[in-house]
Each structure stands twice: as C-alpha cells, then as structure tokens.
Write a structure and sequence with these properties.
globular; 8 strands; 140 residues; mainly beta
Length: 140
C-alpha cells in the first residue's frame, strides 16, 4: 500500500508540471516591414518599416502598384488587442488581409527564422501586374 501511495504521488507530481509555461512579456513596440518590387524577376526596389507603440494607430505606405496598410489596436476599449495588416492594389481594392489577435497583457513572440518575426514572411501580388510585396511584422 505504501508503494502504491508513493507511485501515485509521483504521478501527480509529474502531471502537475504541465502548467508552468513561461509568460512572454508584452511587446513595447511592433514593427512591420514591407519590401516591394515591380516584378518577381527583379530585386527589391524599396523597403519601408512601420512602427507601432502600445496605442491605437493606423499607418500605410504606398508603392507603385500596391499599398501596405497596418492597424494596431491596444484593446483598451474592447479588450481585443490585435494587429491587422492588409494590402490594396492601385485602385484601393483589398487583395490580402490578415488579423493577428494578441493576448491583452503579453506577446506576441518572434518565432520565425530569418528575422520574420511573429507573422512569418508573407507575399502579396498585384492583380494585372507583375508586382510583388513581401511583408513581415516583429516584436522589437
């Protein structure tokens, strides 16, 4: 009986360690970088970076055939902290849109290799054009 009690205590101790994950600090700033080229057969022509602090903000940068947009919401009004990024063509039609929902008091965490932050490297293409926009967002 004593051996069974010891085994049960060891099992409970082993199972109890699963909830000890380390919390990730809340990002002080988030930067989104957009790299543009007129054709996939050419090198990157221009690279721009948008930086967000922990306050509601929306920014964009226009390239020849596309516009990169990003909006950060601190979640103060609705507890919905997020970063939304989208790309529009020259006629302001949305060609790509992604919402990154973030914990209210932590993260995000850079997780992609190659310096591609927490979003990874994304590609967007302009319709009726050979233009390409690459973008990624990272915690600074």
């Amino acid at each position: 009986m004593k051996k069974l009690l010891i085994v049960l205590m060891m099992l409970l101790a082993a199972c109890g360690g699963g909830g000890t994950e380390t919390a990730v600090s809340k990002a002080e700033t988030i930067s989104c970088t957009a790299a543009y080229r007129a054709s996939v057969e050419e090198g990157i022509e221009r690279e721009e970076t948008l930086t967000f602090s922990d306050a509601n903000s929306e920014q964009s940068v226009a390239f020849a055939e596309m516009v990169f947009h990003a909006a950060y919401s601190a979640g103060e009004a609705d507890n919905e902290r997020n970063l939304r990024v989208w790309v529009t063509d020259a006629l302001d039609n949305v060609t790509q849109s992604t919402l990154y929902q973030l914990p209210i008091n932590s993260g995000p965490q850079n997780q992609f290799v190659g310096g591609h932050g927490f979003t990874g490297l994304n590609y967007s293409y302009a319709p009726d054009s050979a233009a390409e926009l690459q973008y990624w967002c990272e915690v600074n």
